[in-house]
Amino acid sequence: MEWLYILMPIAGVKIFWPGLIVLGVGVGVIGGFFGMGGAWMVTPGLNILGFPMAFAIGTDIAHMAGKSLISTMRHGKFGNVDYKLGVIMIIGTVAGFEVGAQMIMWLERMGNVEKVVRYMYLVLLFLIAWMVFADVAKRRRKEKEALAAGGEVDKLATGLEWHKTFHKLKIPPMVHLHVAGIYCSAWLPIIVSFATGWLAGILGIGGGLIRMPALIYIMGCPTHVAVGTDLFEVMISGLYGAATYTYKGRTELVAAIIMLVGASVGAQVGTVATKYIKGYGIRIAFGCAVVGCAISIVLKLMPSFLPQYRVAFDNAATFFVLGVVAVLSTYITVKMVQGAKLEVANKKRAATARAA
Predict the structure, then answer these.
(1) pLDDT digit string, tens, across residues 128-178
(2) Distance (Å, whole) CA 31 – CA 242
(3) Which parts of the chain fold into alpha helices (H)?
(4) Under a CB-based contact definition with an 8 Å cutoff, are residues 62 and 253 in contact?
(5) CA distance 59 to 128
(6) CA dihedral 94, 99, 105, 108 (to 10 degrees)
(7) Is 20 helix (H, G, I), strand (E, B) or coil?
(8) CA angle at residue 159 from 154 to 164, to 5 degrees?
(9) Boundaries of domain holding 73
(10) Which distant-in-sequence residues (6+ apart) come within 8 Å of 222 by Cβ?
(11) Residue 67 confidence class, pLDDT cut points 50, 70, 90
C-alpha cells in the first residue's frame, strides 16, 4: 500500500494522497456552496492526514486562494457579490490576518500550536453550530406562530436579528451597500473583517467560517449575498495569506496543487447549487457540516486521554472528516442536478404553452 502515500518535500512527511483528492473535490463543492474557502474543514483535515499544524494552515490557505477566485467569478455572474462591502472589509481582513499569522509563529516556537489551535477550533465550531441552529429554531417558531394567527412569516425574516441592533450604531462615515440592501456605519464591516482576518491567520481559515454567519447575523446580508461576498473576501485573504505563509516556509505546494485541481471542478458545482438551494436550506446544511467537523477534531484529541487507542482514534478521525466532506458534497451535487432538471422541465412546459 506504499503507492498510496506521497512524500511532501517541504514538510518532510508522507501523506495519503487519495485523501488530498477527496478533500480537494469535496471541499470545492462545499466551499462554492457555503461561500467560504472550506478551510474550516481542510486545515483539520490536513492535520489529521499527517501534516504538522503550521504546514496544514499554510498549505490550505494556498489552495484556498485559487479555488475561491473561481467561485467568486461564478457568483459574480449571479449577482451575489457586494463588491463595495468586500473592498471595505479588505482593510480589517489584511490587518487581522497578519496579527494571527504572527501569533501562530510565536505558538510554534513555544511548542503549543497543535493543542491551542485544535481547542480554539472546537470552541469556535460549537459556538457557530449553536448560533445556526438557534436561528433555525427561532425562525420555525415564528412560522408556527404566524400560521396559528392565520398569516405567514415574511420570506426575508430571520430567527436571530442581531443586525438590527448593530445598524442603530450611527458612527460616521455611513455607507449604503446597494447589493446587500444595507445602510450602516463603515466601522461595522471593518471591525467584523478584522476579527475574521485574525481568525484566518491563527486558525488557517479564509475567515469564511465566521464571516459568513457574521455577514448574515451582524451585517444583515441576505444569505445568497453573504455567500458570494464572503467568497470575494476569502479570495483576497487567501492570496495575501498564501504569500505570507510561503515566505515563512510553511506552505507545501505539492499538496496545494493536488487539492486545487479537484477543488476547481468542485467549486463550479457548489456555486451553481446555490441557484437551487436558498436561505435556510444553506444554513441548515452549514450547521450540520460544522458539527461534523467538530466531532472529527474531538476524535483527534482523544489519544491525549486514552493513548493506548491512538491508532484507532486517528483512523476514526481521518475517515470521519473525509466522510463528512463526501456526504455533504454528494448531497449538494444531487440537489443541484435535481434543481437543474426541474428548471429545464419548467422551461419546456413554458415553451409548449407558448407554442399552443
Answers:
(1) 788 778 777 777 777 777 777 776 655 555 566 677 777 777 888 888 887
(2) 18
(3) 17-34, 39-49, 53-77, 83-110, 113-148, 162-166, 187-203, 208-214, 223-247, 253-273, 279-301, 310-355
(4) yes
(5) 24
(6) -120
(7) helix
(8) 85
(9) 2-350
(10) 156, 180, 181, 279
(11) low
In angstroms, the CA 183 to CA 220 distance is 10
d(CA 300, CA 315): 9
In a domain, 258, yes or no: yes
Domain count, the chain: 1
Contact status, residue 152 vs residue 146, Cβ threshold 8 Å: yes
227 part of a folded domain: yes
User: 270, 332 in Cβ contact below 8 A?
Assistant: yes
Residue in 33, 109, 32, 42 with CA at minimum distance from that of residue 67 = 32
Provide the pLDDT for residue 130.
Answer: 82
| Nearest CA-CA partner of 141 in 256, 196, 203, 149 | 149
Task: Read off the amino acid at residue 315.
Answer: N
pLDDT bin (cut points 50, 70, 90) of residue 272 is: confident
Q: Is 355 domain-assigned? A: no
Which set of grid coordinates corresponds to residue 284?
441548515
Q: With contact defined as beta carbons under 8 Å apart, do 207 and 39 qualify?
A: no
Spatial distance between the Cα atoms of 28 and 71, rounded to a whole number of angstroms: 9
Q: Strand, coil or helix: what is 264?
A: helix
Cα separation of 66 and 134, whole Å?
Answer: 34
> In the structure grid, which three cell numbers stand for residue 60, read together?
490550505
Asked if the structure places residue 356 within a domain, the reply is no
| Helix, coil or strand: residue 27 | helix
Is the separation of the CB atoms in 120 and 219 below 8 Å?
Answer: no
How far CA 88 is from CA of 84, 174, 214, 306, 319, in Å, comes to 6, 12, 15, 47, 40
